[in-house]
C-alpha cells in the first residue's frame, strides 16, 4: 500500500499518510497537533487551507460549509501528495498519542446527570497531556467516547473526567449507573488543540454544561498566568444544578485577584437571583468591545457557533482570537464530555 506525503506549512513538516487515513490522523500519529476538536467533520475547528493537492471525504458527508480552497483535516483523505496550511504546528513533534488501560479510582455523582470520574493510567505509559486536551475511551466494539481532562497535568498518570449522562448513551449511562472503582477502561490520547495561547491579552472563558472540564484544567494549571492577564469565566446551564462546581468557582472568585465568575441560567428556578438568558449574550452585555480580548469557548456546538458569530460581528473580536472545543453529540452512539 503506497503512502502519500503530507506536508504541513509553514512549519515545513513532512509525514507519511497511509491510504485511507485522514490528514489529521497522519499528523497525530507523527506527534503533530494541528487545530482540531470533534474529529467528526462537524465543528469546523480543523478547517485548514489546502495549499496544493486533492482530498476526498467519506461518502455521505456534507462539507458544504467548508470555505473554497480549504478542507476539514479530521475527515479529509489525501488523493496523492498534499500540502496543508497548519498554523500553530511547530517543527518539533509534541506529545505522542498513547493507547493504554486505565483503572477507575472513584466515581462521584455530582449532579442529576454528571459524574466526576478519577482514572489512573500507568505512570510508565508515557501519557502526558496539556490543559484543554481530551482522551478517547474506546469501547469493546471499537467505538469511542471523548472526554476532556479537568485536572492539572502531572507525570503520575492521573486523569479526571466529567461525564454527562446522555439519554440513550451507551457509555455515559453505564458510567452513571454501573461504573465503579477498580473497573478498567481502554483509553487513547491525548487529542485536541484547545490550548491557552501564551499572550498577555485578557481572557474570557465561556462554557456550557460539562464544557467546564477543560476550563477547570485551564484554571488549575494556568492560575497565575491567567490572573496576571485578567480572566472572566461565564458558565451557562439550564438550571443551577447544571453548574455542578458553582461553589468551587465562587470560592475561586472570592480568593483570587483579576478573576470574575458569572453563572448564567437559561431556565432558572424561581429562587435564582443571578444572571439569566444565553451565556454568550451575558458576555456581550458586560464586555461590548472584545477587540482586546481572547475568548475560549467549550461545550455545546450551537452555543459556540452563536458566540463565535456574534463576538466577531458585533463585538469586534478578531476571528483568530476565538478558540473553541465543541462537545459534539452525533447520536446516542457518539458524544463529547
From TrEMBL:
<dbReference type="GO" id="GO:0016491">
    <property type="term" value="F:oxidoreductase activity"/>
</dbReference>
<dbReference type="InterPro" id="IPR050415">
    <property type="entry name" value="MRET"/>
</dbReference>
<keyword id="KW-0479">Metal-binding</keyword>
<keyword id="KW-0001">2Fe-2S</keyword>
<dbReference type="Pfam" id="PF00111">
    <property type="entry name" value="Fer2"/>
</dbReference>
<dbReference type="InterPro" id="IPR017927">
    <property type="entry name" value="FAD-bd_FR_type"/>
</dbReference>
<keyword id="KW-0411">Iron-sulfur</keyword>
<dbReference type="GO" id="GO:0051537">
    <property type="term" value="F:2 iron, 2 sulfur cluster binding"/>
</dbReference>
<dbReference type="Pfam" id="PF00970">
    <property type="entry name" value="FAD_binding_6"/>
</dbReference>
<protein>
    <submittedName>
        <fullName>CDP-6-deoxy-L-threo-D-glycero-4-hexulose-3-dehydr ase reductase</fullName>
        <ecNumber>1.17.1.-</ecNumber>
    </submittedName>
</protein>
<dbReference type="InterPro" id="IPR001041">
    <property type="entry name" value="2Fe-2S_ferredoxin-type"/>
</dbReference>
<keyword id="KW-0560">Oxidoreductase</keyword>
<dbReference type="InterPro" id="IPR039261">
    <property type="entry name" value="FNR_nucleotide-bd"/>
</dbReference>
<dbReference type="InterPro" id="IPR017938">
    <property type="entry name" value="Riboflavin_synthase-like_b-brl"/>
</dbReference>
<keyword id="KW-0408">Iron</keyword>
<feature type="domain" description="2Fe-2S ferredoxin-type">
    <location>
        <begin position="4"/>
        <end position="90"/>
    </location>
</feature>
<dbReference type="InterPro" id="IPR001709">
    <property type="entry name" value="Flavoprot_Pyr_Nucl_cyt_Rdtase"/>
</dbReference>
<dbReference type="InterPro" id="IPR008333">
    <property type="entry name" value="Cbr1-like_FAD-bd_dom"/>
</dbReference>
<dbReference type="InterPro" id="IPR001433">
    <property type="entry name" value="OxRdtase_FAD/NAD-bd"/>
</dbReference>
<feature type="domain" description="FAD-binding FR-type">
    <location>
        <begin position="97"/>
        <end position="197"/>
    </location>
</feature>
<dbReference type="Pfam" id="PF00175">
    <property type="entry name" value="NAD_binding_1"/>
</dbReference>
<dbReference type="InterPro" id="IPR012675">
    <property type="entry name" value="Beta-grasp_dom_sf"/>
</dbReference>
<dbReference type="InterPro" id="IPR036010">
    <property type="entry name" value="2Fe-2S_ferredoxin-like_sf"/>
</dbReference>
